[in-house]
Amino acid sequence: MTRRHKLTLARIIAAAVLLAAAHFAPLEGVWELAAYLVPYLLVGGDVLLRSVQNILHGQVFDENFLMSVATIGAMFTSEYAEGVAVMLFYQVGELFQSVAVGRSRRSIASLMDIRPDFANVLRDGETIEVSPEDVAVGELILIRPGERVPLDCVVTEGRGSVNTAALTGESVPRDVAPGDELISGTIDLNCVLTARVKSVYAESAVARILDMVENSSDRKARTENFITKFARYYTPAVVFAALALGVLPPLLMGEPWAKWIHRALVFLVVSCPCALVISVPLSFFGGIGGASGRGILVKGSNYLEALSKADTVVFDKTGTLTKGEFKVARISAEGMEPRELMRLAAGAESASTHPIAGAIIDYAESEGLDVPEVRDIEELAGLGIRAKVGGHSVLAGNARLMETENIPIPEQSNEAGTVVYLASDGVYAGSILISDTVKDDARETIDTLSGLGVRTVMLTGDRLAAAKSIAAQLGIDETRSELMPQDKVTALEEIMASARGTVAFVGDGINDAPVLMRSDVGIAMGALGSDAAIEAADMVLMDDRPSRAAEAIMISRRTMRIVWQNIIFALAVKLIILVLGAFGIADMWLAVFADVGVAVLAVLNALRCMNVKNI
Fold it and tell me: Rounded to an integer, what distance in angstroms lies between the CA atom of residue 485 and that of residue 513?
């Protein structure tokens, strides 16, 4: 509890003691009024002041105005105890809400702990402590045990473990060695590491994460915007309704003024919309905070709301459902030795950064193959590579490349994996099967989504047989294969056209950025994904586990259930008490429950959004 909260609590306690003293003191007339006025001003002075300030700024109809009019009216009708009690319980509710909001904010603000305070830079043989913003790409930094990794970098010396829990939600440390990448915000546990910086602080993972968190409240959900607009029109409407309730019966029917003014004041207290205005944003804030604790960063409550309505989730294959760790599984050569085929393939793929090319090059290096001279490398988008390798014109790519070049190939097998076809001097030379393995939690992800009633689709540039094999292994509902990058957007639009709810897309590669942007909710496979994918996405999974996407849907649905529980509960109770108050059945104490009591219960319910451990 903050100092401000403690001061408010002290005022409430003091006012409650003075209220009890005034109630039991044998006072009459002006002395009785003075005895009640002291606790009233002590606990409600700031509410009266805010109400006056808001009126001077043209903001008349808010909860401060409602409480001020209701309690001042009670004091004027000699209902002193009720007037003080209304203000007292209102402040209790406000204190409770403020503490709850602070707790929810701290759950997200805890992410701010990942911000590095300094970096140890190795310059001119010395270790200098500088701000992370002052470190350039390519410089060497020293990371000691217990220190936070200040920038995205690559380990050059040292072996040990790092804690990634603040970013990924994973409690299991990750082992690192020379050549491994380190993400800013992780903590060095037990070793001295030297690493080379690969990006400036502004482009680092930790900077992007903090930017997402700080700006998440700017993107409000439709429900949240509706409540804001509702309160804007609802409050003045109930003020005029209360005015009519207090004035018209005495004027038109000769009823006693005191009775109807009291009913109007009860009406005002009940109608305060604070339960909705506080609990709905708090629910979304709690949902975003709870998700962040699971390594799921949400860029705004509007995306949380949209994801709750998702009935279809579309996955990229490589790096999303599969590990993207490719290995050569089979070599089929025609008219030459397998080793010669691999020499040509390694030469053609030598300039490519694609994971499949990397698998071929790694195999050639492990076998000690001598790669011939390579010239005139031409990358054919979505097809493969054309290059001069050792004096031969070599083509390496998919079946469409061979078809484009009118080179006949054997009938494709049903083996799981990606086939790279090769041709030398216009003649088919053989094929290489590159296999990938599915992620450990991929099957669990699809099963969970199916249990939630969500249809799953996989989009891939891989061949049909390989795609069907992975889809059958995981239980995916629909598969679309052999897609060029631009085809994925078209395929997604077709899926969105047939979907009943919203469509989420989960991907990690740079070629996924257009699809992430086109989907209703784009989910990027976080820290290890490409910068373009993370920028384009609406949510970021800070580890490489696709099961986080299923968790995100469960969190979003639970958040929306709690939001609607609060809306329905608050409106139903207020409507009942408003009607009872208008007929004189409900008194001021019941009105206090309908306002403060409902608000406290709604806030307590909203705080459940933060508890996602059992999701």
Answer: 10
Domain contains 383: yes
Label residue 273 by pLDDT band (50, 70, 90): confident
pLDDT, tens digit (0-9, with 9 covering 90-100), for 550-577: 999 999 999 999 999 988 988 888 888 8
**3-class SS at 78?**
coil
**Residues whose CB falls within 8 Å of the CB of residue 360, separated by 6 or more in sequence, listed in order:** 328, 342, 345, 346, 349, 420, 432, 434
What is the longest distance spanned by two Cα atoms in the chain? 114
Provide the CA 290 distance to its chain's centre, in angstroms: 9
For 249, residues 6+ apart whose C-beta sits below 8 A from its C-beta are 255, 260
- 456-491 burial, b at 16+ Cβ within 10 Å, e below that, comes to bbbbbbbbeebbbbbbeebebeebbbbbebeebbeb
Domain of residue 418: give its range.
Answer: 327-435
CB atoms within 10 A of CB 3: 7
Q: Are 272 and 67 in contact (CB under 8 A)?
A: yes
Q: Locate 586 and state its tokens.
A: 């409900």
Look at residue 168 and tell me if it is in a domain.
yes
Which of 614, 612, 615 has the alpha carbon at shortest distance from 108? Answer: 612
Q: What is the pLDDT of residues 149-162, one digit of tens each?
A: 999 899 999 988 88
346, 379 Cβ separation under 8 angstroms: no
Tell me if 421 sits within 8 A of 399, measured CB to CB.
yes
Distance of CA 324 to the CA centre of its chain: 25
Q: Is residue 509 domain-resident? A: no
Question: In the listed set 145, 178, 210, which residue is the last one of a domain according to the structure?
Answer: 210
Domain count, the chain: 2
- Compute CA distances 109 → 104, 204, 298, 601, whole Å: 9, 19, 14, 25
DSSP state of 593: I
CATH number of 194's domain: 2.70.150.10
The verdict on residue 266 lying in a domain is no
Residues taking part in catalysis: 316
Token pair 């207090």 is found at 246
Token digits of residue 594: 């309908």
Model confidence, pTM: 0.69
